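Cytochrome c oxidase assembly protein CtaG
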Amino acid sequence: MSEAPRENLPGRQQNWQMFGKLIVVTLAMFGFGFALVPLYEKICEVTGINQLTKRDRQAEEFARNTQVDTSRKVVVEFDANGRGAWQFRPETGSLEVHPGQLVTVVYDLVNTKDVPTTGQAIPSYAPMVSSQYFHKLECFCFEQQELGAGETRKFPVVFVLDPKLPKDVNTITLSYTFFEVGGKGATASVASGGRGG
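Predicted C-alpha coordinates:
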Protein backbone atom coordinates (compact mmCIF):
# COMPACT_ATOMS: atom_id res chain seq x y z
CA MET A 1 0.00 0.00 0.00
CA SER A 2 1.44 3.32 -1.00
CA GLU A 3 2.06 6.01 1.58
CA ALA A 4 -0.35 9.04 1.57
CA PRO A 5 1.20 12.10 -0.04
CA ARG A 6 2.91 14.33 2.47
CA GLU A 7 1.46 17.79 2.94
CA ASN A 8 3.21 20.69 1.28
CA LEU A 9 5.19 21.99 4.26
CA PRO A 10 6.62 25.13 2.60
CA GLY A 11 3.08 26.26 1.60
CA ARG A 12 1.73 25.63 5.09
CA GLN A 13 4.66 27.51 6.62
CA GLN A 14 3.96 30.50 4.34
CA ASN A 15 0.33 30.52 5.47
CA TRP A 16 1.38 30.65 9.13
CA GLN A 17 3.86 33.46 8.39
CA MET A 18 1.15 35.45 6.61
CA PHE A 19 -1.25 34.83 9.52
CA GLY A 20 1.40 36.10 11.97
CA LYS A 21 1.99 39.24 9.87
CA LEU A 22 -1.76 39.93 9.75
CA ILE A 23 -1.99 39.65 13.54
CA VAL A 24 0.95 42.06 13.97
CA VAL A 25 -0.63 44.56 11.52
CA THR A 26 -4.02 44.29 13.29
CA LEU A 27 -2.43 44.90 16.71
CA ALA A 28 -0.42 47.83 15.32
CA MET A 29 -3.57 49.40 13.83
CA PHE A 30 -5.45 48.97 17.11
CA GLY A 31 -2.55 50.52 19.04
CA PHE A 32 -2.35 53.44 16.60
CA GLY A 33 -6.12 54.06 16.91
CA PHE A 34 -5.85 53.94 20.70
CA ALA A 35 -2.92 56.40 20.65
CA LEU A 36 -4.79 58.85 18.39
CA VAL A 37 -6.97 60.19 21.22
CA PRO A 38 -4.16 61.72 23.33
CA LEU A 39 -2.28 62.66 20.15
CA TYR A 40 -5.36 64.52 18.83
CA GLU A 41 -5.82 66.31 22.17
CA LYS A 42 -2.15 67.39 22.15
CA ILE A 43 -2.38 68.67 18.56
CA CYS A 44 -5.54 70.62 19.47
CA GLU A 45 -3.81 72.10 22.52
CA VAL A 46 -0.75 73.21 20.51
CA THR A 47 -2.68 74.60 17.52
CA GLY A 48 -5.67 75.99 19.42
CA ILE A 49 -8.10 73.88 17.40
CA ASN A 50 -11.11 72.72 19.39
CA GLN A 51 -10.25 75.21 22.13
CA LEU A 52 -12.27 78.00 20.54
CA THR A 53 -15.55 77.14 22.23
CA LYS A 54 -14.14 76.31 25.65
CA ARG A 55 -14.72 78.74 28.50
CA ASP A 56 -11.60 80.74 29.41
CA ARG A 57 -11.52 80.17 33.18
CA GLN A 58 -8.91 82.89 33.75
CA ALA A 59 -10.59 85.58 31.60
CA GLU A 60 -12.52 87.20 34.45
CA GLU A 61 -9.46 87.44 36.68
CA PHE A 62 -7.41 88.69 33.71
CA ALA A 63 -10.00 91.44 33.05
CA ARG A 64 -9.94 92.56 36.71
CA ASN A 65 -6.15 92.71 36.88
CA THR A 66 -5.19 94.22 33.55
CA GLN A 67 -4.55 97.87 32.76
CA VAL A 68 -6.34 99.63 29.90
CA ASP A 69 -3.89 100.85 27.24
CA THR A 70 -5.50 104.19 26.32
CA SER A 71 -2.60 105.03 24.01
CA ARG A 72 -3.72 102.41 21.51
CA LYS A 73 -6.93 101.55 19.63
CA VAL A 74 -7.74 98.33 17.80
CA VAL A 75 -10.68 98.02 15.41
CA VAL A 76 -12.68 94.86 16.14
CA GLU A 77 -15.00 93.81 13.30
CA PHE A 78 -17.93 91.48 13.97
CA ASP A 79 -19.24 88.98 11.45
CA ALA A 80 -21.95 86.30 11.62
CA ASN A 81 -22.93 83.41 9.36
CA GLY A 82 -25.98 81.24 9.98
CA ARG A 83 -26.18 77.70 8.59
CA GLY A 84 -29.50 75.92 8.46
CA ALA A 85 -32.44 77.27 10.44
CA TRP A 86 -30.82 80.49 11.66
CA GLN A 87 -30.90 84.20 10.97
CA PHE A 88 -27.85 85.50 12.77
CA ARG A 89 -26.22 88.93 12.94
CA PRO A 90 -24.26 91.26 15.23
CA GLU A 91 -26.00 94.47 16.33
CA THR A 92 -22.88 96.45 15.47
CA GLY A 93 -20.44 95.89 12.62
CA SER A 94 -17.28 97.13 14.36
CA LEU A 95 -15.92 98.94 17.40
CA GLU A 96 -12.72 100.76 18.32
CA VAL A 97 -11.36 99.09 21.44
CA HIS A 98 -8.51 99.91 23.82
CA PRO A 99 -6.53 96.80 24.80
CA GLY A 100 -7.47 95.96 28.40
CA GLN A 101 -10.94 97.54 28.03
CA LEU A 102 -13.96 95.38 28.92
CA VAL A 103 -16.30 95.30 25.90
CA THR A 104 -19.80 93.92 25.34
CA VAL A 105 -21.35 93.29 21.92
CA VAL A 106 -24.72 91.68 21.20
CA TYR A 107 -25.68 89.15 18.53
CA ASP A 108 -29.28 88.55 17.40
CA LEU A 109 -30.30 84.97 16.65
CA VAL A 110 -33.61 83.85 15.13
CA ASN A 111 -34.82 80.27 14.75
CA THR A 112 -36.73 80.33 11.45
CA LYS A 113 -38.17 76.81 11.90
CA ASP A 114 -41.54 76.02 13.44
CA VAL A 115 -39.96 73.48 15.82
CA PRO A 116 -37.42 73.98 18.62
CA THR A 117 -33.92 73.84 17.14
CA THR A 118 -30.48 73.50 18.72
CA GLY A 119 -27.32 75.13 17.40
CA GLN A 120 -23.65 75.71 18.17
CA ALA A 121 -21.62 78.80 17.31
CA ILE A 122 -18.00 78.33 16.24
CA PRO A 123 -15.78 81.45 16.37
CA SER A 124 -12.85 82.26 14.15
CA TYR A 125 -10.37 85.12 14.25
CA ALA A 126 -8.42 87.07 11.66
CA PRO A 127 -5.53 87.42 11.89
CA MET A 128 -5.28 84.01 13.53
CA VAL A 129 -2.62 85.15 16.02
CA SER A 130 -5.21 87.46 17.63
CA SER A 131 -7.11 84.49 19.10
CA GLN A 132 -4.39 84.16 21.76
CA TYR A 133 -5.05 87.73 22.93
CA PHE A 134 -8.86 87.69 22.74
CA HIS A 135 -10.25 86.76 26.19
CA LYS A 136 -14.01 86.12 26.37
CA LEU A 137 -15.70 86.29 29.77
CA GLU A 138 -19.14 85.51 28.37
CA CYS A 139 -20.10 83.97 25.04
CA PHE A 140 -23.02 82.00 23.62
CA CYS A 141 -20.40 79.86 21.86
CA PHE A 142 -19.44 78.16 25.15
CA GLU A 143 -22.45 75.83 24.89
CA GLN A 144 -25.17 74.71 22.52
CA GLN A 145 -28.20 76.98 22.34
CA GLU A 146 -31.79 75.81 21.90
CA LEU A 147 -34.37 78.24 20.56
CA GLY A 148 -38.09 77.56 20.41
CA ALA A 149 -40.08 77.63 17.19
CA GLY A 150 -39.69 81.10 15.64
CA GLU A 151 -37.92 82.40 18.77
CA THR A 152 -35.62 85.43 18.67
CA ARG A 153 -32.93 85.86 21.29
CA LYS A 154 -30.10 88.31 22.00
CA PHE A 155 -26.73 86.96 23.09
CA PRO A 156 -23.99 89.13 24.61
CA VAL A 157 -20.30 88.52 24.05
CA VAL A 158 -18.12 90.08 26.77
CA PHE A 159 -14.42 90.24 26.00
CA VAL A 160 -11.15 92.00 26.67
CA LEU A 161 -8.10 92.27 24.43
CA ASP A 162 -4.76 91.51 26.00
CA PRO A 163 -2.52 94.64 25.95
CA LYS A 164 0.28 92.29 24.82
CA LEU A 165 -1.45 92.01 21.42
CA PRO A 166 1.30 92.51 18.81
CA LYS A 167 1.65 96.18 17.82
CA ASP A 168 1.25 95.39 14.11
CA VAL A 169 -2.30 94.05 14.70
CA ASN A 170 -4.59 97.05 14.24
CA THR A 171 -7.74 95.23 13.11
CA ILE A 172 -9.26 91.97 14.35
CA THR A 173 -12.24 90.22 12.78
CA LEU A 174 -14.30 88.05 15.11
CA SER A 175 -16.50 85.82 12.99
CA TYR A 176 -19.09 83.30 14.18
CA THR A 177 -20.71 80.53 12.18
CA PHE A 178 -23.86 79.15 13.78
CA PHE A 179 -24.59 75.52 12.85
CA GLU A 180 -27.70 73.47 13.50
CA VAL A 181 -26.81 70.42 15.61
CA GLY A 182 -28.69 67.36 16.83
CA GLY A 183 -30.50 67.88 20.09
CA LYS A 184 -34.00 68.32 21.44
CA GLY A 185 -35.00 70.13 18.26
CA ALA A 186 -33.90 67.18 16.13
CA THR A 187 -35.93 64.85 18.38
CA ALA A 188 -39.00 67.09 18.10
CA SER A 189 -38.66 67.17 14.30
CA VAL A 190 -38.53 63.37 14.14
CA ALA A 191 -41.52 63.08 16.51
CA SER A 192 -43.56 65.38 14.29
CA GLY A 193 -42.70 63.32 11.22
CA GLY A 194 -40.06 65.79 10.00
CA ARG A 195 -42.69 68.46 9.11
CA GLY A 196 -41.99 72.14 9.18
CA GLY A 197 -38.36 71.84 7.93
